[in-house]
TrEMBL record:
Residues 1-20 form the signal peptide. Residues 40-190 form the Peptide methionine sulphoxide reductase MsrA domain. The lineage of its organism: Bacteria, Pseudomonadati, Bacteroidota, Sphingobacteriia, Sphingobacteriales. This is Peptide methionine sulfoxide reductase MsrA. The active site is at residue 46. GO terms for molecular function: L-methionine:thioredoxin-disulfide S-oxidoreductase activity; peptide-methionine (S)-S-oxide reductase activity. It holds the Pfam family PMSR. The keyword Ion transport does not apply. Its EC number is 1.8.4.11. It catalyses: L-methionyl-[protein] + [thioredoxin]-disulfide + H2O = L-methionyl-(S)-S-oxide-[protein] + [thioredoxin]-dithiol; [thioredoxin]-disulfide + L-methionine + H2O = L-methionine (S)-S-oxide + [thioredoxin]-dithiol. HAMAP family: MsrA (MF_01401). Has an important function as a repair enzyme for proteins that have been inactivated by oxidation. Catalyzes the reversible oxidation-reduction of methionine sulfoxide in proteins to methionine.
Length: 216
């Protein structure tokens, strides 16, 4: 379940997770990249906000919420919430490299969450909310490491980035009801109080990377 330290929001969070039960719990599909597309996989806290943030970037064609970095095959959301699978809530991004580069995606990712906290994103705690980048090539790893130095040097954050930089192995797609959850549930207290501020934070940091409809 989504967790929050403040008592007055606890019921909202329980609604945000548990009340998804009546929705479609079949697993989403993880499509193969189309011709000319590349993919990237990140974890940055609740995947509801990260899916929306990455979807708003120019050149991004699709984002699939899922689970990565763990040891259990085909985990369910309930499995991951037990914090025993090793998986983090993650997103797989399908993008056009002629419009947006891997480096630009990574930079936007660093501003779409707080990469300076270990196993925590705001009110959400546990290794399933850790910050991680799952690189596919040595070049991607080098790009990430260079950008960590760049963002640290700006002192945008008071503390250094602690994002895990680890090889990509597999991403298991999450249940259908998690896909596009941010836009499908604008009435959710969790979305309004936790997810929206993350998305707005990224928009403010990298307006030049946004699709026109979000760059206003």
């Amino acid at each position: 379940m989504k967790k929050i330290g403040l008592y007055f929001l606890s019921i909202i969070l329980l609604w945000g997770c548990a009340q998804g039960q009546p929705e479609n719990h079949s697993f989403a599909k993880l499509p193969e990249p189309k011709a000319g597309e590349k993919v990237a996989a990140f974890a940055g806290g609740c995947f509801w906000a990260m899916t929306e943030a990455m979807s708003e970037l120019k050149g991004v064609n699709k984002v699939v919420a899922g689970y990565s970095g763990g040891t259990v095959k085909n985990p369910t959301y309930e499995n991951v919430c037990t914090k025993t699978t090793g998986h983090a809530e993650s997103v797989q991004i399908y993008y056009n490299p002629s419009v947006i580069s891997y480096a630009q995606l990574v930079e936007a990712f660093f501003y779409a969450h707080d990469p300076t906290t270990i196993d925590r994103q705001g009110p959400d705690e546990g290794d399933d909310y850790r910050s991680a980048i799952f690189y596919r090539t040595p070049e991607e790893k080098a790009t990430v490491e260079a950008l960590i130095k760049k963002v640290n040097a700006t002192h945008h954050y008071s503390n250094p980035i602690v994002t895990q930089v680890v090889p990509y192995k597999v991403l298991y797609p999450a249940e259908v009801y998690h896909q596009g959850y941010y836009r499908a549930h604008p009435e959710s207290g969790y979305i309004a109080s936790v997810s929206v501020p993350k998305v707005m934070k990224m928009r403010k940091a990298v307006p030049q990377l946004l699709k026109p409809e979000f760059a206003k």
